[in-house]
Amino acid sequence: MTTEHAMTEVLERIRRVRLVPVLVIDDAAAAVPLARALLEGGLPCAEVTFRTAAAEEAIRRIAGEVPELLVGAGTVLTREQAAAARAAGARFVVSPGFGPAVVDHCLEHGVPVFPGVCTPTEIEMALAKGLSTLKFFPAEPAGGVRYLKAVAAPYGTVEFIPTGGIGPANLAEYLALRCVAACGGSWMAPADWIAERAFGRIREETARAVEIARQAKGGAR
Ligand code: 3PG
Question: Does the Cβ of 165 fall within 6 Å of ligand 1?
Answer without folding.
Answer: yes
